Every structure is written in structure tokens, then in C-alpha cells.
Amino acid sequence: MAETAVHKETHEDPNYLAIFGWLFALTVVEVGIIYLPVPKLMIAAGLVILAVVKASLVAIYFMHLKFEKVVIWWIAVIPAILCVFLILMLIPELV
To answer: I want to staple 68 with a disulfide (CB 3.0 to 4.6 A). Which of 58, 59, 72, 85 is the partner?
Structure first.
């Protein structure tokens, strides 16, 4: 019981409806980006950026990473950095 009292003091429940609202708004923006009269590369970049933002919101609030130790953050961030690095390394193959 004492552990739950300490848990309640340090872990405030996030406003899940607000997070849902942000995710919905970002989805609407994604759909709107598709119809913009800009090059496809810019559309793809915008969609990827919005997808990363949405994935971050889900990980932080719904997967409760906001309340985890720093080690867990590094476990989540390092693969993302490696993925970006590998994508950047493959760009010369496209040219």
C-alpha cells in the first residue's frame, strides 16, 4: 500500500483526452498535407515528421515513458538514431 501512495505522489495521470485531441489534430494535418501543391519529397518529409511526433506522443504518454528512468529513454532513442543514420547512408544509392 505504501508503494501506491508514493506512486500516486510522483505519477500524475496524464489527460488522455487532450493527448487524443493532439493525435487527432495531427492526423487531420497529415491528411491535409497530402493535398498540398508541393513536391512529393516535401509531402513525404512532412508526413514522416508528423509520424515521429505522433509516435513520440504515444510512447511518452500511453506507454508511460515519461515516468521511466533515463536508461529506458536511451533504449528507445538509440535505435531511432541508428535508423536515421542508415537512411542517410543509403541516400547516395538513390542518385
So the answer is: 72
pLDDT exceeds cutoff 60 at 5? no
Q: How many domains is the chain partitioned into structurally?
A: 1
Report how far residue 50's alpha carbon sits from residue 41's, in angstroms, rounded to the nearest whole number.
14
Q: What predicted TM-score, i.e. pTM, was given to this entire model?
A: 0.67
Q: What domain range is 13 assigned to?
A: 2-68
Burial (Cβ within 10 Å: 0-12, 13-18, ≥19) of residue 61: buried
What pLDDT digit, counting tens, does each position of 36-83 carry? 999 998 999 999 999 999 998 888 888 777 777 788 778 878 988 998
Say whether 62 sits in a helix, a strand or coil: helix
